[in-house]
Amino acid sequence: MKRFWIASLGLAACALTAQEKVIPLYDGPAPGSEDWTHSERESVSNLWNTRVVFNVSRPTLTWFAPDRARANGTAVIICPGGAFFALSIDSEGRDVARWLAERGVHAFVLKYRLVKCETDDPTREVMTRGPLDAVVAPVVKLAMADGLAAVRHVRDRAAEYGVNPRRIGILGFSAGGTVAASVAYNYDPGSRPDFVAPIYLAYHWTIKDRGVPTDAPPMFIVAASDDQLRLAPHSVELYQDWTRAGHSAELHLYARGGHGFGMRRQNLPSDRWIERFADWLDMNGWMRP
Questions:
Q1: Lower CB density within 10 Å: C or N end of the chain?
Q2: pLDDT attached to residue 17
Q3: Reduced to 3 states, what is the DSSP secondary structure of residue 221?
Q4: How many other CB atoms sit within 10 Å of the CB of residue 156?
C-alpha cells in the first residue's frame, strides 16, 4: 500500500509538471539585446524572502494549461514584478497562474528582460544602485516589447493552445504592472490585449507617449493605500486617465495590504483581490466558454 501511495504521488507530480510548458518567446536572441551574454539565475535567500529570477536575457512564457473539461478559452499573460531587477516568480507569477488555471483560464507567466545585476542578490542591489529611473528606462522598452510579443504569440497560436484569440489579457504586478500598462498604450492590431490588469503598478515608468488609444481595452486596477513605495496614487492616476478617455476601468484600492502582496496571505481583505479579478472577468463573460 505504501509503495502504491508513493507511486500515485509520483504520477500526480508528473501530471502537474506536464501542465506547465516553457516556451521561448523569440527564435534566437531577443531583438534589441542580441549582444547580451549573461544567463538567467534564481535566488531563494534574499531581502524579499521569496524566490526571485534575475538576469533574464532570453524571455520565455510558461504555459499553465487548465484541465480540458474546465477550459473556457480565456488566456492571461502574467508579468511578475521586481523593479526590473528581478521577478517575484512565485507569489506574482506561478501561484497566480495555478489559481487561474484551476478555474479554466490559460495562464502564461512571462519572464521579460531585466537590468543586468552585478551581484548575486538583486533585491539588495535595487537598494544600492541609487536613483533607478535612468537605469530602468532602457529596459522598460525591452520589457514592453516582450509583453507585446507575448500577446501576439498567444494570439498567433491560439488554435494550438485552445485559446479564443479575442480573449487574451495581460496582468502585471509593480514593474510587471508597468509592462502591462505600457502594452495597453502601445499595441498594434496583432498585439492588442483584450483586457489589462495592472496591480500596484509603477505608473511613472509606463511608456505612454502616444496617449490613451481610442480603442483601449477595459482595465482592472488594484493597489493598497499603505503601499510602502507610495504607489497607490499611481493606480488612481491610471484609472483617471482611462475613464477620462471614456474607457472602462475598475479600481480596487484597499486600506491595507502594502506593496508586493501578490498571492501572499496576510489575513486582510487584499488577500482576495484575485477573487475580485475573477468576478470582473466573469462580469465581462471571460470566465465562461
A1: N
A2: 40
A3: strand
A4: 12
Copy the grid coordinates of residue 193: 490585449
To which residue does cell 536613483 refer? 131
Query: What per-residue string of b and e applies to 218-247 under the rule 16 or more CB within 10 Å gives b?
Result: bbbbbbbeebeeebbebbeebbebbeeeeb
pTM of the model: 0.93
pLDDT given for residue 59 in this prediction: 98
Q: Count Cβ atoms below 10 Å from residue 139 Cβ, excluding itself.
A: 20
Closest CA to 230 of 199, 259, 250, 257: 259
Report whether 83 contacts 54 (CB < 8 A). Answer: no
Amino acid making up residue 222: V
Residue position matching grid coordinates 509503495:
3
State the pLDDT at residue 16: 44
Residue whose C-alpha is closest to residue 235's, from 250, 257, 245, 218: 250
